[in-house]
Amino acid sequence: MQCDEIWEFVGAKAKNVTPEKKAAGWGDIWTWTGIDADSKLCVSYLVGGRDAGWANEFMEDCAKRISGRVQITTDGHKVYLEAVENAFGADIDYAQLQKIYGAPSDEDQRRYSPARCIGCDMKVVSGDPDPKHVSTSYVERSNLTLRMGMRRFTRLTNGFSKKVENHRHMIALFFLYYNFCRVHSTLRVTPAMEAGLSDHVWTIEEMCSLLPKQATTRAIAEKNLVLKALGERM
What does the alpha-carbon distance between residue 122 and residue 134 come to, in Å, rounded to a whole number? Predict the structure, then answer.
């Protein structure tokens, strides 16, 4: 499993948020993702902050969804160390992959991008991870799919989320679609099919059928009667 976090903001970037708006959920927000490198299945995700508390919650959820010994690769974010140990204990092969960036040139400073990556430093944290599978490439590619496929993640636009609740709902829909509906180009099937969780490509209708049926309230019933009456008159 490969784990990573992707940044976005709700309402405004943290430096521009007033205390009142911060209490309403505005500011920087992170999406933690765990991707199975074999099936490309999103094992778990979490939307929140980037501190140790969120890391522990994310890793504990990952551990509940995995059986047997697993190899995990994360970036060099320090909070992963304690979170992985608390969630999985000693029964794990865990390595961190820290990217090394060169000093930014004048060209890099003008671009909306980080400095160029000039190498990687692998550190074995626990167990005996296979160096051939120590990588975060798949989860980083998944993050790119998330950023390219959802308008809320597009940089330098006004398409960002305005409410943290709606942001979480849309990410939930994205990963449901990603796992069960979207055919992966290299797998020729969906990640859920590759992982043995589904035997067919889900349709949008099947996704929508998971929604609970809305109870007919008195207000909705009265509205339907008014619309019916107007239709009969026309």
Answer: 8
